[in-house]
């Protein structure tokens, strides 16, 4: 088991109970889909997969060890597990595409040559080569999403977590993003994705969890989940 949420319970400061005893497991090579309506708790769970939120109860397990929340452990954890936020505007800050994608690798204090190589490769992989000098705020929604994905890819994570990557995209844009996730998975990256858009799920997910009002109410293969309704 690569990444696991074990008995995670979490309430926000205002008392909202967002997660109740959530268990979810991810194996190397998986594409795991987390289904749930708006407000089910998907984003809250994903913020635990990046260590931004810390559970009230339960733990995050990475490669068999409990996640610790000191700075050093979190930096190491975030190199392995990259979170792509739902709204790229929460993630893109730099004045140009290339500077944005370079941000993570620069933070890792990698040599400039390596940073440039990673930025170039990441932009190629998401189909955004040629956009290096563009200002992110001039890009379309789908393009911004690709740049945000490139920024995470440039960190060379083992696991990528995508919060609602198809939200707000038209069907064509959505299937492009799904194809990109499949490609990344074929290249060895383990994928976790949340969505309320069930139509595409059987095409890509090998394991599905259903989250409802903060609780996992179903899990299994896509076939299990979609045939027993
Ligand atoms: P989803 O991603 O499935 O739409 P969220 O994780 O965003 O669900 O939300 C789960 C629950 O937590 C909802 O009831 C939501 O209103 C609440 N919530 C989310 N963020 C906050 C916050 N910062 N403060 C208080 N409540 C929040
Ligand atoms: P939007 O629909 O929001 O404009 P898209 O996701 O459709 O965004 O595409 C973003 C940009 O990336 C477009 O300029 C498109 O031509 C380009 N693009 C999309 N997919 C690929 C790909 N696989 N290879 C190369 N370029 C691509």
From TrEMBL:
Domain ABC transporter: start-end pairs: 3-229
Keywords: ATP-binding, Cell membrane, Hydrolase, Membrane, Nucleotide-binding, Translocase, Transport
Any one biological process term the GO annotation gives: cobalt ion transport
Record-level Gene Ontology MF annotations: ATP binding; ATP hydrolysis activity; ATPase-coupled transmembrane transporter activity
Subcellular localization, as worded in the UniProt entry: Cell membrane
Main location, first listed in the record: membrane
Membrane topology listed for this record: Peripheral membrane protein
GO cellular component, one term: ATP-binding cassette (ABC) transporter complex
Protein task: Probably part of an ABC transporter complex. Responsible for energy coupling to the transport system.
Membership in a protein family: Belongs to the ABC transporter superfamily.
Name by which UniProt lists this protein: ABC transporter ATP-binding protein
Residues shown, of full length: 1 to 229 of 278
């Amino acid at each position: 088991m690569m990444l696991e949420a074990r008995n995670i319970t979490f309430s926000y400061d205002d008392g909202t109970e967002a997660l109740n005893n959530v268990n979810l497991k991810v194996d190397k090579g998986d594409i795991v889909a987390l289904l749930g309506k708006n407000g089910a708790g998907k984003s809250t769970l994903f913020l635990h997969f990046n260590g931004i939120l810390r559970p009230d109860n339960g733990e995050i397990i990475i490669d068999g060890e409990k996640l610790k929340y000191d700075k050093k452990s979190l930096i190491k954890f975030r190199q392995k597990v990259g979170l792509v936020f739902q709204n790229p505007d929460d993630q893109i800050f730099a004045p140009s595409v290339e500077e944005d994608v370079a941000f993570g690798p620069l933070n890792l204090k990698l040599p400039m040559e390596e940073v440039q190589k990673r930025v170039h490769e990441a932009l190629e992989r998401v189909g955004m080569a040629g956009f290096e000098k563009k200002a992110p705020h001039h890009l379309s929604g789908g393009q911004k999403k690709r740049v945000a994905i490139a920024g995470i890819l440039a960190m060379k994570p083992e696991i990528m977590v995508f919060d609602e990557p198809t939200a707000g995209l038209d069907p064509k844009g959505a299937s492009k993003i799904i194809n990109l996730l499949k490609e990344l998975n074929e290249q060895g990256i383990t994928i976790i994705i949340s969505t309320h858009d069930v139509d595409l799920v059987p095409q890509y997910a090998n394991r599905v969890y259903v989250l409802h009002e903060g609780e996992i109410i179903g899990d299994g293969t896509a076939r299990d989940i979609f045939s027993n309704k």
